[in-house]
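Bumping my old thread because nobody answered last time. Still need a sequence for this structure:
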């Protein structure tokens, strides 16, 4: 028999364990949720193996059993999934920290935050360790479908864990034995387990049985194949919580599509209520779960949606996909490509509808994810027109700095004769409002979009124009302002010096002498009302704010 071997947890995991073992009582329910979710993942993998590997066809029942023992203060979670080899136990449960874990920790560094955000643990690929929220000793006994013998992992959640061979034959799958903390003994009470499973794990697509009675305590109903009308809001919310690992959160909106041709698929997609990237969390790396004929083929599939929609949670299930579609071939798969196109259209339709029917909800959404839509408008040329309708800017119309003006709103307010959409960028609202180039626009009551987000400048560059109207920075040379009614002097720029008032030509000459080497030209202008002079950019040049941004980026 192989000796018991001792390992040290990877440094970040050690830190995480410390945090988890001191976690607050009310967040502890997520431990059960994470362990059940792992068992379910292992069952998904086994079902997949059974369907694709002839030698594994006879996989036996795929199920989860929860066995509480109140007297012994012990809880066992058992699954008949793929199991783990010795190497997998060592790597998955201790020595390899998933990429997100360091960032997760960084963001949990303050205690106040830790209380609030622990429930996100599942999203960062470290859900297993939540076992130490409720247990002071954890044993994992596992046998892989590829292995003859079973292995046992054990730890008290401090610095180390051990792995050794199990002499007695083990059934295929994994058994997590939790030795519950004194103050977590309620996790061994059957009604408490039922309550938690109903709350967090109702969408696990495998039976969850409560031993010893073998009562199935979840309902495993795939809501995405149901007709929309038959699914309640509560069911949608719960499914979101299941997919996102978010405990009490409600999605901002959901989208349920069922398409029969040319490709058959069902999909349920959700927008989370807040954008973690905005709060300094790492780039979101989750995606949509991909199923073929109800069988999960891949979690976090990134090929189904463009990168800028990476914040959406959801599931796509198609009858037209082969089970053996691999991660490598997904990108070239024509079924995936067509689902992706159809999904994208549905998402934009849904957002248009939200903007129209529930403007407040849409505003909440763009406040969180608007920057990502703008990212889309820059990178996704084929969808640019659709995205341009959905993005929002601040503007001089209300001048409150809120990003709630659509390009269509702006166009709707344009006076007759205005041929361009005007904008002005700056480091912040206050700086923008001080810009002397605004004077003529204020005087003429012409609206100017305020680009308060750095990405806005890039959006303007990418769009170039909207509805045939060029997007023009008001610090550019050629403004092409509409004729003001009854104003003979409506042309803002005076092209030739000859128009200058007598004696003014001399002033211009003096200016040219003084700063001539640093500007292309000095001209008389009617665009100012209060300020004596301003700088503008030559036709076709980048706006001043864009030059500033690029300069910063080059540093
Ligand atoms: P994640 O589930 O996001 O990968 P976890 O910390 O929850 O992160 O689990 C880490 C890994 O441990 C899993 O990816 C899986 O490979 C393995 N694992 C955990 N629980 C089980 C289980 N019950 N059966 C098989 N493998 C498991
Ligand atoms: Mg997990």
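Sorry it took so long. Here it is:
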């Amino acid at each position: 028999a192989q000796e018991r071997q001792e390992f040290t947890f990877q440094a970040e995991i050690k830190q995480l364990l410390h945090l988890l073992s001191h976690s607050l009582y009310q967040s502890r329910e997520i431990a059960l949720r994470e362990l059940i979710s792992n068992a379910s993942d292992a069952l998904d993998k086994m079902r997949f193996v059974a369907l694709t590997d002839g030698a594994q066809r006879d996989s036996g029942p795929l199920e989860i059993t929860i066995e509480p023992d109140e007297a012994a203060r012990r809880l066992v979670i058992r699954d008949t999934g793929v199991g783990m080899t010795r190497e997998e136990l060592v790597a998955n449960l201790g020595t390899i920290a998933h990429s997100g874990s360091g960032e997760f920790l960084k963001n949990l560094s303050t205690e106040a935050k830790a209380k609030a955000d622990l429930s996100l643990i599942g999203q960062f690929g470290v859900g297993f360790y939540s076992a130490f929220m409720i247990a002071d000793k954890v044993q994992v006994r596992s046998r892989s479908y590829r292995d003859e013998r079973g292995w046992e992992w054990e730890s008290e959640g401090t610095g180390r864990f051990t792995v050794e061979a199990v002499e007695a034959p083990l059934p295929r799958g994994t058994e997590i034995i939790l030795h519950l903390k004194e103050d977590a003994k309620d996790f061994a009470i059957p009604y408490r387990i039922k309550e938690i499973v109903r709350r967090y794990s109702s969408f696990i697509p495998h039976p969850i049985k409560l031993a010893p009675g073998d009562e199935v305590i979840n309902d495993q109903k795939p809501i995405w194949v149901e007709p929309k009308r038959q699914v309640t809001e509560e069911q949608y919310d719960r499914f979101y919580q299941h997919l996102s690992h978010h405990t009490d959160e409600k999605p901002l909106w959901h989208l349920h599509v069922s398409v029969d041709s040319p490709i058959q698929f069902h999909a349920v997609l959700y927008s989370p209520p807040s954008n973690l990237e905005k709060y300094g969390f790492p780039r979101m790396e989750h995606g949509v779960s991909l199923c073929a004929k109800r069988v999960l083929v891949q979690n976090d599939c990134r090929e189904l949606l463009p990168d800028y929609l990476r914040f959406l949670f959801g599931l796509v299930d198609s009858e037209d996909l082969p089970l053996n579609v691999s991660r490598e071939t997904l990108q070239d798969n024509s079924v995936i490509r067509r689902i992706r196109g159809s999904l994208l259209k549905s998402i934009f339709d849904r957002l248009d509808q939200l903007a129209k029917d529930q403007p407040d909800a849409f505003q909440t959404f763009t406040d969180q994810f608007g920057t990502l839509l703008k990212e889309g408008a820059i990178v996704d040329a084929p969808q640019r027109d659709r995205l341009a309708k959905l993005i929002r800017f601040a503007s001089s119309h209300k001048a409150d700095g809120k990003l709630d003006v659509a390009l269509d709103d702006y166009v709707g307010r344009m006076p007759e004769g205005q041929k361009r959409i005007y904008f002005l960028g700056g480091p912040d609202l206050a700086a923008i409002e001080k810009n002397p180039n605004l004077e003529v626009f204020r005087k003429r009551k012409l609206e100017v979009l305020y680009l308060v987000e750095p990405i806005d400048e890039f959006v303007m560059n990418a769009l170039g124009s909207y509805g045939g109207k060029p997007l023009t920075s008001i610090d550019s040379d050629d403004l092409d302002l509409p004729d003001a009614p009854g104003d003979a002097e409506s042309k803002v720029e005076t092209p030739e010096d000859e128009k200058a008032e007598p004696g003014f030509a001399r002033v211009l000459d003096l200016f040219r002498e003084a700063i001539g080497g640093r500007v292309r030209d000095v001209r008389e202008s009617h665009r100012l009302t209060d300020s004596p002079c301003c700088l503008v950019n030559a036709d076709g040049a980048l706006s001043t704010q864009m030059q500033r941004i690029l300069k910063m980026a080059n540093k």
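The chain has a mean pLDDT of 87. Let me know if any region looks off to you.
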